[in-house]
Amino acid sequence: MTVRKARKAWLVAGGAVGVCLSFVALLVVGTYSAAAGLLGGAGSGVNGTVALAKGAVPAAYQHLVQKWGNLCPAINPALLAAQLYQESGWNPKVVSPANAMGIAQFIPGTWAGHGIDGDGDGDRDVWDPNDAIPSAASYDCELAGYVKKVPGDPTDNMLAAYNAGAYRVIKSGGVPRISETQNYVRIIRSLEKSFARPVGRVEPSRQAAGAIYYAQQKLGTPYLWGGTGTAAQNGRFDCSGLTQAAYRSVGIELPRVANDQYNAGPHPARDELLPGDLVFFSDDLTNSRAIRHVGLYVGGGYMIDAPRTGAVIRFDKIDTPDYFGATRVTEDGAAALPTHLPPT
User: Fold this and answer.
1) Under 8 Å CB-to-CB from 289, ≥6 apart: which residues?
2) In this model, does residue 8 exceed pLDDT 60?
3) Residues 6+ apart with CB under 8 A from 183
4) 260-288, pLDDT tens digit by residue?
5) Segment holding 296, helix H or strand E
6) CA–CA distance, 236 with 17 (Å, rounded to integer)
7) Is 178 in contact with 32 (CB distance < 8 Å)?
8) Distance separating alpha carbons of residues 49 and 79, to the nearest angstrom
């Protein structure tokens, strides 16, 4: 990519003439020198309770997750959200091949023994999130009680009991050396960070510069709906195809669609954005599952994105009424995402 081409693309997008120097300054100062002073951590709200990241939980379920996620010390709203997202992708009607049902994916035997009437309407309906979400929290807390004397992290032990059974956790003296169980614990704890509202600043991504460099090389490429940059597609992309390819170039595999990419890491506030963050747009600002567009932030209020049919990959402003939020991609966060979520 020549300076002239990059400058031309910036001008088309309405940017400044000195894009290359500005971009380099933003990238170096914004991404690297900031690293020394940034803090990470789980989000917290009033009285130390964990607060949910903006829009990460669909609005219809947010109050349930926030309320029941504080049922016992071993869980929190972000952890409960991570479990529900991993199990069903927020789909209250899904049935798995193992006959696990509903938003919390209870199998019939487990539901019979542990389902509760969460909304107090006189029945226990596995298909009703008002019962299923409270039941998931209640079951987690039951398991935490079974393994409370086991050494190690109580939440890790609870999750391990959810996957492998409390007896195996007790017998093993902690998370069993079962790859499926260890992966389950790792995945939920990683996703938990994505659903929690950060406290303080989020650590910068070490892969940001490489992802931006890749996207820069694609400036001027025509948009293709469904495009992932293959030779058969003449190297063309849609919005999430571009961001997926940019992070793949630095060894991070993102999901294919924009609303799944939102959960690939923690969520910095607008005034904490750094080059390399993914920025998202939606017509429903309460629900991350409704996200319809994503771009790669480069600093100064601009992103590189593949906007729509008839346009080319270019620089665009991010401060629009449909701006939803941002994600700072992490290796662990991306690796924890489900690869095949059911449709919502």
Assistant:
1) 58, 89, 90, 259, 344
2) no
3) none
4) 999 999 999 999 999 999 999 999 998 89
5) strand 293-299
6) 26
7) no
8) 12
- Tokens representing 295 are 């771009």
Side-chain half-sphere of 330: how many Cα atoms within 13 Å?
18
| Cα–Cα distance measured from residue 176 to residue 164, given in angstroms and rounded to the nearest whole number | 8
Distance CA 173, CA 176 (A): 8
* Residue (of 200, 264, 198, 205) closest to 32 by Cα position: 205
Residue with tokens 């002073």: 37
Region for 249 from its dihedrals, namely left if φ exceeds 0, alpha if ψ lies in -120 to 50, beta otherwise: alpha
Kindly tell me if the per-residue pLDDT of 24 is higher than 70: no
Please write the tens of the pLDDT for every residue from 206-247: 889 999 999 999 999 999 999 999 999 999 999 999 999 999
> What would the two tokens of residue 197 be?
């509202």
Three-class SS of residue 228?
Answer: strand
Crossing angle of the two packed helices 59-68 and 129-146, in degrees rounded to 10: 30
User: Strand order of the sheet with strand 302-305?
Assistant: 314-317, 302-305, 293-299, 278-281, 323-327
DSSP state of 72: S
Answer yes or no: are the C-beta atoms of 293 and 303 closer than 8 Å.
no
Q: Is the dihedral of CA 145, 151, 154, 155 positive or negative?
A: negative
pLDDT score of 43: 46
Tell me the residue ranges of DSSP E strands in 158-269: none
Instruction: Reply yes or no on whether the pLDDT at 2 is more than 70.
Output: no
Q: How far is CA 35 from CA 27, 40, 68, 81, 224, in A?
A: 12, 11, 36, 29, 36
The token pair at 344 is: 């919502």
